[in-house]
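Why this split exists: single-chain examples teach little about how molecules sit against one another. For that reason, every record in the complexes split bundles all components of an assembly together and asks for one structure covering all of them. Below is a record exactly as it appears in the raw files.
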Amino acid sequence: MKVPFSWLREYVSVSLKAKEVAERLTMAGVEANVTEVTGQSWDKITVGQIVALEPHPNADRLQLATIDFGQGQSKVVCGATNVRTGDKVPFAQVGAELIDGHSGKPAKLKPAKIRGVTSEGMACSEKELGISDSHEGVLVLPADAPLGAPLAEYLGDAVFDLEVTPNRPDCLSVLGVAREAAALTQQEVRYPFSGYEEAGDAIDKHVSVEIADADLCQRYCASLIEGIKIGPSPTWMQQRLTACGMRPINNIVDITNYVMLEYGQPLHAFDFRKIGGAKIVVRRARAGERLTSLDGVDRELRPDMLVIADQAIPVAIAGVMGGADSEVTGNTTSVLLESANFNQVNIRRTSSGLKLRSEASMRFERGISPELTVPALRRATQLILQVAGGQAAKGLADAYPGKKEARVIQLRTSSVRQLLGLELTQEQIVNTLISLGFQCTRKDSLETTVTVPYWRMDVNQSADLAEEVARVMGYATIPTTTLSSELPRQQVDTHLAFREQLRDLMVAAGFQEIITYSLTSQEKLARAASAETAIRVANPLSAELEYLRTSLRPGLLSTLEANQKYEEGGIRLFEIGRVFLGRGNDLPDERETLGGVVSGPRGALSWLGEKGQSDFFDAKGTVESVLSRLGIEADYAPGGEEKFCPGRVARVVVRQTAVGIVGELHPKIAEGFDLLPQPVALFELDIERLLSVVKEKQGYRPLSRFPRSVRDIAVLVDVQVPAKKMLEIAQSVPLVSQVSLFDLYSGKQVPAGKKSVAFRIAYQSDARTLTEEELEAAENEILSRLAKDSGATRRA
Amino acid sequence: MLKELEELKTKAVSELDGIDNLGDLEKWRVRYLGRKGSLTTVLRGLGNLSVEDRRTVGAVANELKATLESRLQQKQEDLKSQELVDTIEQTRIDVTLPGYPVSIGRLHPTTRTLREVCGVFASMGFQVVEGPEVEWDYYNFEALNIPQDHPARDMWATFWVDTEGGGRSRLLRTHTSPMQIRLMEKTRPPVRAVVPGKTYRYEATDATHEFMFHQVEGLAVDKGITMGDLKGTLFEFARRLFGADRKARFRCDYFPFVEPGVEMAIDCFVCQGAGCRLCSNTGWIEILGAGMVHPDVLRRVDYDPEVYTGFAFGMGVERIPLLKYGIDDIRLFYGNDLRFLKQF
């Protein structure tokens, strides 16, 4: 909503500068910015009057004007031909800043000698003042312009650009903003004049108004003006409409728009001759009815839309737009002026159903009081008589089935003080509310009866009044205190702490955290995981963002792909986020998941040598390290799903609970994500399940005081024997404290079908230093168990 | 014999002085102090001397032995330390060569900011809780005083979720505020919690708009909580997050589920309040929305607004690093370009 400062000042006397007014409005809840300021640089420019004109002695086309500027007179050389003696003009003294008529740039006015005559100042054009591009002549001011007044005061203006929140439709009007400004500056609002003479028959004799669907129309008022003359509206009105962003059309239409801006009440003027049967019926549209609206579009109306109809057909879509057939045209001589109140929800549905938003519908859908119809209608009728002539029928048509009592709130001073934390007196509260137009009656010293003015439909209860008091007094007056109430019992959220610990562990493992969109495409989901239970967004931004992810894989792989272009070394990424598994029409199962991906060289390129390409074991090593840090020992069961490379994938299982998967992505899928042809190792862990298998740490293992002995053994074994089995066998032998598999080889010097596996085994006792014989015996036991259970033989 | 010893001493000492490596030193030791060494031979010959001479010569010889052994030890130490010096000298390296690269991970800037924000509130006794990202219309809107067809719905462009055959309306939560209701439904006052999480808006993305972002919601309800407490809590938060020099202010704003409603701003840290592009020449930067919990919201969860009052606030998380680091494109956050993420 745009409001020219000059228009606002018509209703409230504010001595503050535009910027200060904007600041106060903003702080009080109506965000205002000052735009389009004119007159800011008009120092040394005043309203002057031409007292004498004589020809220039040395030039035919120039004149010498003697200008009285209040504090004295000056003689200036003047090239314009549109001035006469007695005209009021903007007069710039030497030193004033003006826009140069030729270059268009600001320049200081210097004393000049023009064709031998000294010119001490200048009578200015609109262009020189920076108002417009017109340089056709000197700007002649109205005769009543106050002589000697600074031009900035007389002609300067600013436009407020207001952002009105949905709760304050009353501020979608100049008067509403004036009421705010008045309360914030302790001024009174001066309402516009709206008196006029009526003539002829009572309006009821000319037109009948019937509200058939009272649930959608609380009130319908109309006035009738006959014998009007259509023409352009006066300049001042056109200027204001333009400043507010509206296009002037003709005097009648302009007046309806002007009063809508002034009062906030949408109005509509019908060409009365086009209203069949001189009858207005407010009713729901009938099936199949159509209407060509003012914008020329032929529209099909649905039966849930409210229309204004004459005796037979719709002539307007109620509260949204009028019909083209009953539009006011150059030939119109009688207008029926509508000022009505429609159901806000219905207007909202109609306008969004027709995809037709208008200044009227925007106001109706936010809510307007039915009490506003009459004042706005009287004002508009008065303006029509003033501007377009004609005569108004006696009285107003007024059907008002939806009348409601004014809202009354019992306000306890203590509740305002309590809510705001501010020591206020009843008097302070009452005075503030009165300044906003509320009526207050002291019930007793503790309680006030407050009647809400009709235009404040947003105020319903004490808390609303508390806000009114606080915002007018200024939120800055609210004290700054600390919470002193009881601290609620804290409930430990183990999931949250666990998840954050996982995040830290992944960072410690050298992974970069990423956060990707929860929305992805069906194609990517199906390619990397499964789209089966994926939930679809009904109004997606694009097909790429259509489904809620059921897996972190699409995000991880797409991010990997996008970064492979730039990264020299290997990439290690992880994300912790929710995946969404559909459960019919219920809310989905939102499972927090940890996903990681590793690909490319193990280390950054270095002169110290390479460490090879990342593969399955990098992902697994990360999972092992993270889980071990959490005190979880997992099994890695070979096999997984088809998205992984067969033989290079394992399910992560902890005590019969599957907690995740680790593996190398199937090369075909990697290709589908445009990834470089190199192993891509992935893992996914379900955080909730992981948490369920974490055991509370119980006690600790005492440290052995006796020395540890280390011996290596190498064995030959069938290639199919899993390492895990051999490790378990070795581990099961008494006195063995640690087994590390440190070498694995097959090829030359190893028989076909066999592999050579070497273990480093640490032996230790908590009770004594082990003897050579004991070590020998333990080692032999390992070898014999390996031989018996895995067919391994010691490698010579 | 004594003269012989004297000569031996002179010779041994002068030879020792000339030795410059441990190998020669060992040879020298063998020559003089070894089992067949000169001095040993002399000492062995003592038996042939008279008792008198044996005492005299013996004393001198033993003294000489002690001297040579001590000299030997000294020389050994000297040579060893010299050898170490030499070794060190020979194994000098170019310390400007790059070290072995160790891969260190990083948290996403959003995670870091979330932790920072939640940490400040946790220290004020706010418990951290989380809620679902796919929500019922009821929690996201209805229960927050935003019924169907309410004009305020325009404030939240919404992603709706497909629902079959007249199921209840589901959506991607447009703010973390639904957790206000869920929390209060579950517990009786006092309540003091913050809710971090992802939120979604049906908006085309550009440098200043992202359809997915994070918020942190706050809620405190109890007997006697005032708007002054809200101000104190949030001003303290701003001080801790943005520095003690930052000024904060409250202005009136509208959110359907609070009354009075508040928008908090801090003075612009680029222009210090003078007005610049970052703050659109206002000198202030909006940080969050807040207010006193609306009495109708309290009634809806069976809290008596005559007894209990409370405040709520909600803030966009990305906005904080955006402002702090002067990031000019919000899409960088979830574009996940490592060249961006590695800067944090």
